[in-house]
Task: inverse folding
C-alpha cells in the first residue's frame, strides 16, 4: 500500500470511529455525508475511479454504469439525512439493517470479482480494488453493524392502506426483484440493454449497482410500518431523487448510447419517477381519535 493510500485509509478509519462512538444520529449523518461525497466522485469523475482499479480499456457503458452507481448511492443517503432526528426507532433500525445487507452483498461481489476478473488483459480489475472495495466497505459495514446490534427497541407499527404505503410496498417489491435479478444474473440485464459482449468491469459494476438497489428495496418494503408519514415520504423522496438522477445520467449519454432499449429504459425511469411523485404528494390521512 502506498503512502497516499495509507493516509487516506487512516483518515477514513479515524472519522468513522469517531462517528461510530458519537451515537446513532451522528453515525447516520456521517454515513449520509460520506456516501454522497463518494457517489459524487463516481458521477463527476467515473473514468478516474475506474482507471485506478481496472485494466481497461474503458468504453461508454463502463462510464455510464459508474454514474448510475453514484446516482443510486446518493438516493440511499437521502432517507438517512432526512430521518436522522426521527423519534421512531423503527426508521433507524431499518436503515441500519438495510446497510448491513447491502454492504455485505457488495463485499461478496468484490470477492467474486477478485477471484474471476482480476488482472485480465482486458475488462478486468486490479489489486487496487481491494483497498477501495474491501477496506472502505468493511469499515462502513462495521459501523452499521455496531449500531444495529446495539438496538434494544425494535419499534414497528401497523400498516395502513393509504396511497403512500401502497406506493412504498409496490416499490419495495419491484426493487427487491430487480436487485436479486441484477446481482445474480447481471449478464441477462446487460443483454437486455443491448450489451452482448460484457466484460468483468460491466458485470461487477452491475452487481454493485444492484446491491444498492436491493438495499433500497428493503427500506421501501419496511417503510409502510413507520409511525410518521414524513418518514415514509423521506423514503419516497430518496427514490424520486434516484430515478431523476438516472434520467439525468441517461441524457448525458443519449448521443452515444441511443439504442431503442436504452431509450425505453430511461422513459421507464421517468414514468416511474412520476408514479413515486404521485405517492409522495398523497394527502395526509386524517387521524381518528
Result:
Amino acid at each position: 500500500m502506498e503512502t497516499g493510500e495509507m493516509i487516506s485509509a487512516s483518515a477514513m478509519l479515524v472519522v468513522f470511529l469517531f462517528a461510530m462512538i458519537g451515537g446513532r444520529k451522528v453515525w447516520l449523518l456521517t454515513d449520509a455525508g460520506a456516501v454522497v461525497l463518494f457517489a459524487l466522485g463516481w458521477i463527476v469523475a467515473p473514468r478516474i475511479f475506474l482507471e485506478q482499479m481496472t485494466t481497461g480499456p474503458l468504453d461508454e457503458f463502463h462510464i455510464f454504469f459508474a454514474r448510475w452507481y453514484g446516482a443510486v448511492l446518493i438516493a440511499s443517503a437521502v432517507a438517512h439525512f432526512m430521518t436522522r432526528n426521527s423519534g421512531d426507532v423503527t426508521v433507524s433500525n431499518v436503515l441500519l439493517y438495510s446497510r448491513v445487507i447491502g454492504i455485505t452483498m457488495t463485499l461478496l461481489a468484490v470477492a467474486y470479482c477478485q477471484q474471476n476478473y482480476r488482472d485480465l488483459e482486458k475488462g478486468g480489475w486490479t489489486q487496487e480494488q481491494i483497498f477501495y472495495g474491501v477496506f472502505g466497505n468493511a469499515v462502513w459495514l462495521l459501523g452499521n453493524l455496531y449500531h444495529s446490534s446495539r438496538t434494544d427497541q425494535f419499534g414497528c407499527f401497523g400498516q395502513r392502506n393509504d396511497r403512500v404505503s401502497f406506493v412504498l410496498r409496490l416499490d419495495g417489491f419491484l426493487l427487491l426483484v430487480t436487485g436479486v435479478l441484477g446481482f445474480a444474473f447481471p449478464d441477462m440485464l446487460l443483454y437486455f440493454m443491448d450489451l452482448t459482449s460484457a466484460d468483468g468491469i460491466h458485470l461487477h459494476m452491475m452487481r454493485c449497482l444492484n446491491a444498492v438497489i436491493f438495499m433500497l428495496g428493503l427500506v421501501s418494503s419496511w417503510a409502510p410500518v413507520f409511525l410518521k408519514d414524513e418518514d415514509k415520504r423521506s423514503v419516497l423522496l430518496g427514490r424520486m431523487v434516484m430515478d431523476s438522477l438516472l434520467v439525468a445520467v441517461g441524457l448525458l449519454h443519449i448521443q452515444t448510447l441511443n439504442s431503442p432499449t436504452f431509450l425505453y429504459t430511461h422513459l421507464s425511469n421517468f414514468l416511474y419517477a412520476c408514479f413515486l411523485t404521485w405517492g409522495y404528494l398523497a394527502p395526509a390521512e386524517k387521524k381518528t381519535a
Summary: The mean pLDDT is 87. DSSP finds eleven helices and no strands in the chain.
